[in-house]
């Protein structure tokens, strides 16, 4: 009879426990959770704060009792494992209700401790109006603070998933909200030009967005001395930012990121990777083969390079938990690389990504090309179509898909899912052209956004199109000329790239002699389609040319 | 200078013309269209009739003038090609405005004639209140008839895409509508148990659905003699159905299907396939290498088997048009097999499919297994989640994906797209387990419907689960016992499979001795999840068992 101990009762741990029981009725399975809840919907926490999820109970997916009845797992909440004793294969556990320690032996141990919010050593940050959000008690405290203090203003520090979701939740509750982010963009998984519409969306909904700014110190409100922090309870906070601004606020949410929870693993001398996560092999074993680890606490191999990466996402955690149970019972399954496919709702927009972004490709020195497509979420003539902005990164030598990002009101999840499957399957941009996706006017287009991205990328690799990007068109050389092929009304209404000559695409054939044959023509239109038609005309008439991928829309976003 | 003639100015033809121009400024390109419009949104026609698409102009995506200006293509509408003269490589064309014939020579010819509605030889069907819907003039006639006659009742014959969309359009216009379908289900691309919720949805929205019934004859209303059909204009129609019913109606839409338009190809002695479509090779050449053919008129190789199939869908037509232009200029591209991925909106539901359905797998004698998953379109605790019913067909020997079907209010397109990409890429059901799809509560679940289908299918192949289906559980042998593991309240409220013993899954461990060890236990729950937990308990306790995939929900649908 195998005795399995599991540390952590949320995504990965709970998945491992349930799967282990399905595989064996005999196994003894004990799951330790230091908090009061297991299997709670951690991704739902901001939505309960914001009011979208009305019932708190909806977040509690399982209880110790339901888990016992269904899976015969001995769930011990409020029981914190304080040490792993590898030599005798036991754990020392503290019952947080009784404050007594006790021991349990194991045959196999599963670590699913998760990650913890990074709380930087900022002066004054330890106060009664500052919170992070990782679990149900955190959420309860934030709601209690809102209900008790009725804040008129809140500040979120950090523009990642939780920071963005919290800013939206606070705005939904009618609280004026500032979001402070150290870098020049929110949502680090996407590149800056893809984040630009997110900034607009947040500002449009009233978020006071402060990019490129750090929180330096926290004081009690009304510039009282730092040693009077006790008055925070009544008076709120004053934040000092790195640009010198002072910000009066009544609620502070710290959401600058999470770090793997590795204290137990370190204490037990398990190998820790360079990124600070628990190292596991492809069967998800730590450096001790009887100890498995899953979820936010571990380092995963990133899909494109195989390099170690921290990927604190629910999907991988759940699948890893299931796989560990399989492997405990001898399945010998190997965890495949992680793409880090993710999505975030930002008011009426969604932003999603998979694979590597351009920043990372540059940092790793990998060869890449990129294309942008702006197309409708479904047939433009059917009501409710919204533009999707898709960025596709690929290997210019062989068309391998390196990553993709998309922003829009509708259908963003679908397009990134489609590309994530294609990438995982080893399809190339050439294959994206041929994907047969569902089409009827309410759902898509006969040539879907993804097909179109495949066309543009394949054209580029095959030499049917030479692409240019914002950086090149912003600083044309003396041997280059910038040509705007939109209609004059579009230029008047929306502006144009400085220095561009305007010949509408439908007049280009008759006016082509107005252009110099000795210069390279950098063509652009609104999104890249007419630009490509013009580009092909020019090249077929013997001109040198390039087409701005994504057109003026992408250029505007890159400039923002 | 290549001279390219194109017959047909909609999806495939227009795509070929535009791409050909992008590849060559020199080519002479003439596109003939016998109707008054090119590049119209044929998939949008029912939605203009129903009022969702308010502006008729929205359906006219290009005009001859815009096509000339943008692509320098000589577009000749109201010009019908009357013969292909292969020996001298010319066409004879009739100008329908002048009724004069003339000739044009070609180097390369592209046939994109589309398909035409099948109008069966039913007595009385040629009358002023009976229409089919394939193009803008058809649509205009239907709208004119509605506006002139103000019908209180309409009848649609045929439950495919157009028939269903037309029934919805007519209901939206406030017209009582009957839908008459010869087979026992609408939407032939899916299997009958997947069509059952579509029938409910249509009836719920007021469609008078008549399945298993054929239209036998059409009379003028009020049972006047058949030779008085002239009175139809004033008095409407009486329909005689194969079950003897008489149906008074004022508007009749014939939508029983389409057949490839092959008259020109036949006249030119091009090879026609067994299914009645133009035969092409993988480069989309007909039996005459200077004549290409694309779209609804040709036979495509079906994805799983490579067998010829008729796949009259917009996506393949558009891509084929583009590919033909590439091949005319020497690209040598090969058309890949078609999965026939398709989707249809049915009031608030969507139904979609890709690959082969079970009916076809049975007919072709191919080995298959099937699983059903009922899961939420996104996290159940976030508002707006709706159930998705997914059927996955796979090869039980190696897990190859054979086909998939889904029905639901939201997210159906995404799941079928994901599976379509996986199938095209050659992924198996094992790979579906590992797909990393976008997850946040508004968009999906940490274990998506598709992942879950992968889990169930992989469990089945690996022997972790033995599945049973409705036919087996409906007629258990003397050595079998049917076990319902739902809670008694569910049985009271929703009913149960006749003869089932009820032990709720959470009581099974303590009551397991109530079950006979010498019988095979056929377990079921509502959707299959609890059934699997119970199945694993039983097997791990030494019982023989099977789990009903899709549970009571699928059983109910199969019975409907």
From TrEMBL, chains A, B:
Its EC number is 1.8.1.14. Pfam families: Pyr_redox_2, Pyr_redox_dim, Rhodanese. Its cofactor is FAD. Residues 476-560 form the Rhodanese domain. CDD domains: RHOD_Pyr_redox. GO terms for molecular function: CoA-disulfide reductase (NADPH) activity. Keywords: FAD, Flavoprotein, Oxidoreductase, Redox-active center. Belongs to the class-III pyridine nucleotide-disulfide oxidoreductase family. This is CoA-disulfide reductase. It comes from Agarivorans albus MKT 106.
